[in-house]
Fold each of these.
Amino acid sequence: MDLFHAMKVFVKVADAGSLSGAARALALSNPSVTRLLAELESHVGARLFNRSTRRLSLTEAGAAYLERCRQVLLDIDDAALAAGRGAAEPSGTLRINAPVSFAVNHLGPVLAQYAARYPQVHLDVTLSDRVVDLVDEGYDLAIRIGRIRDSSLVARQIAPLRMLLCAAPSYLASHGTPATPRDLAQHVCLHYSYWSTRDEWQFARDGKTHAVRIRGSLQANNGDLLRAAALAGMGIILQPSFIIGDDVRRGTLIPLLPDYQAAAGAIHAVYPSRRYLSAKVRTFVDFLVERFGAVPEWDAGLVG
């Protein structure tokens, strides 16, 4: 049995909803489709479809296998495309969207290094903390912080996201140091406008989530502004280590609630599709992964 061919037939039958529909789409005879599907079921050791005279429906095993088959077929297509590209040099304009604070603090050197390696690529970078529509607005890829809400995008992690709860020594001297997340309700907290949980901060300890509604006299849609306010003693800040890691290392911001883990996540590169991925997008995403790694430079000394 040609497993690759049989998997393509299985996926086409599932998409068409009938054996005859798949046969027409693949220019095969009905008996050929029936035979390949039977051979595939024998190979996996499970019935993939429930059949009746009127309808064809996936079994539970078939539904699970369908997703794996789709991924395998995409991977095979990607491998063929990569082989076809060979050593082709990335070229053309690469349009990138990135969050303001992350890009200003960490993306510049990476762009310079990538440009030196791939001089035929022209980099067009737009900074914005809003979530852009990559397809409608013509971006090749975007860098996203935290949870990816659009399931239609391909997301690849380029670095971990570490969140730090901190305050300046001057603020703590005047207002005291919180001992539990609940204490934060009595403190001045500097709020990031695009925070997914709005004015609620969440922490974890021993498998339990602790959520607290925070209040304060400042909210902003830029982490660097909140950092500056925190350094001036205005309040408590919850921001990524890529913004305030240096301040923690210098002692100008003091970490709080060390026994509680602030909700974290990852930093991703996202792009619309893995099919026919251009060399410029593929090499840039690979470069970001290579450059940042599991422990990026902004986490140096903060991760045990």
Note: The domain at 92-161+266-299 is CATH 3.40.190.10 (D-Maltodextrin-Binding Protein; domain 2).
Amino acid sequence: MQGEIVTTVLLPAILAFIMFSLGLGLTLGDFRRIIVQPRALLVGVFCHFVLLPVVCYLMVTAFGVTGAFAVGFMIIASCPTGSTSNMLTYLARGDVALAVSFTAVASVMTMFTLPFIVAWSLNTFMGTQQTVQVPVSMMMGQIFMLLAVPVATGMVVRHVWPEGTKRREPVATRIATVLFIIILVLAIAKNWTLLRDNFTTLAPFAVGLNLVMLAIGFLVAWIARLSRKQSVTLGIETAMQNATLALVISSTVLKQDAMAVPGALYGVLMYAGGLLFAALMRRFVNKD
């Protein structure tokens, strides 16, 4: 019962406040710039929807991961970026508006790409052909309630009460940072048994995949001559996945608990790489 309250009430409320605090620092001009100059968004789509699944497949093959675990890693690689990536982008001094926009775009695109990738993975690693149904209503509900509404509310508060927002925004951001740490602690506690039992086998692969994709996302954006803030953002958006959706696909849609193990591990361990990346990038990205 307590676990259900944490999952269904506490975590969504924390994520909503984090997104609200990020919205306090955004204006319509931030999003207008992305629409007028969509190159960063297009590079992010290439990294997330092309490079991530390809690199995951190559690593799974090279490291000899097989069967349900291989499919599980391909499922996490085919999921959209998670909402917590936006907070990591803020901590890394990246482009928060780009992060929020990409999270929304990626969630919509996943409806079309995920069934194809997962069905192909099932056939490749397990020799089974199965139609995969994406939980569209759940994804749309997540986007609306955890992303659109809190961010829009924060932006409205900033527009209506600009002076007060400038004074309160640092406090809200500090609270959001503490709440983000609470999310990490809860995620570790919830998946402690999985972490303990699979740390020496699957955990190193999960950490390696995360670090590789952080680096690839950043480097591809840098090669595309995007700004440093945008490059940092796309590194994070390429590697931080919606682990909740991966668990739903594995356990509820496919009814294969073994496939959920890689998603649960990655959903916790990706924060280690993400926080390390954010800490390093803060030293190189100009505050302005």
Note: The radius of gyration is 18 Å.
Amino acid sequence: MVFSESEESRVIEMAWEDRTPFEAIELQFGLNEQAVIIFMRRHIKPSSFKLWRSRVSGRKTKHTKLRSPEVGRAYCPTQYKNK
């Protein structure tokens, strides 16, 4: 898939967000978890990729089926503040 620069930026942002599950990225951009891993490997620095992989590996909030029912949204309430 070919993405615009803003779409690439959004995929990276969503992948880094703790509360955004891989399923949301797949729904919006058509990239499953494995495709997101490949995408991130190609679009961020190797050191950043290692940090990201260690951060998301085993994180329950990155998978809709594993997350707690108390997590009802995909973002932190302070994430989209109006300035």
Note: The two ends are 34 Å apart (CA to CA).
